TrEMBL record:
Organism domain of life: Eukaryota
Organism of derivation: Candida viswanathii
InterPro entries the record matches: GCS
Record protein name field: Uncharacterized protein
Example GO molecular function: glutamate-cysteine ligase activity
GO biological process, one term: glutathione biosynthetic process
Length: 112
């Protein structure tokens, strides 16, 4: 991999993938066909924005509409409540890490 983020496929002997000519991700995906900037931060991908719901909301929707009703058939309500609370805390941690409210271990070590 070059310092600019592009991969030199000639070095490892593989063929260059179709549609890729050694450009960085930023050079390839900067603007879509309609001229709209498609760059998203990790925070926007995880937590969403006004135009994008975010992965956390999508996960909650799948849990509420599909997984919990299926689990009600085989598990007790107490077990499901425990599992949902555990998932809630994990999703909160992921959302807070993505937004920068809770620093990652690497960030904490660098700023210490």
């Amino acid at each position: 991999m070059d310092l600019n983020g592009s991969i030199d496929f000639a070095l490892n002997g593989s063929n260059l993938p179709k549609g890729c000519d050694g450009k960085t991700v930023e050079e390839i995906n900067d603007v879509d066909d309609h001229g709209i900037d498609q760059r998203y931060t990790i925070c926007r991908i995880i937590n969403g924005s006004e135009k994008f719901p975010g992965l956390i909301k999508l996960i909650i929707k799948v849990l509420a509409t599909e997984l919990i009703p299926q689990a009600l058939e085989t598990s007790t309500k107490e077990q499901i409540i425990d599992d949902v609370l555990r998932l809630k805390y994990y999703l909160f941690l992921i959302a807070a890490r993505a937004s920068g409210d809770i620093p990652t271990t690497a960030h904490w070590i660098r700023t210490r």
